[in-house]
Amino acid sequence: MSIQGALTDLMKVFIAFYIGFCLIGRPDIPLKMVSQLRAQALKGTTESWHCPSIFNRSGDCRTYNPANYK
């Protein structure tokens, strides 16, 4: 399964979920759930990523300057 197919399926589920909550008169609930998930996902993005080297060479992490990657 490709990522595009998975996103299409997820979109269909969310739309059905949203329409169901609209029918009972609470269209705000799915949007609140998405905003809470977004806040949790973005909570750790301000932390340092530590050594940025993808090559895993021995001297790369010793020369790492965190000020360059803010």
Task: Give the secondary structure arrangement, pairings included.
Blueprint: H1 3-23, H2 28-42
Q: How does this model look, in words?
A:
There is one protein chain. The chain has 70 residues and is mainly α. It has 2 helices and no strands. Helix 1 crosses helix 2. The chain is elongated and about 60 Å long. 0% of the residues are buried.
Distance between the termini: 36 Å
User: What's the story with the biggest beta sheet?
Assistant: none
Which blocks of ≥5 consecutive residues have pLDDT under 50? none
Order of helices and strands: HH
| Overall spatial form | elongated
Query: What is Rg?
Result: 20 Å
Mean pLDDT: 81
* Number of helical elements: 2
Q: How many E-type strands? A: 0
Task: Tell me roughly what share of residues is in helical segments.
Answer: 40-55%
Strand content: under 5%
Q: Strand pairing plus helix content: what structural class? A: mainly alpha
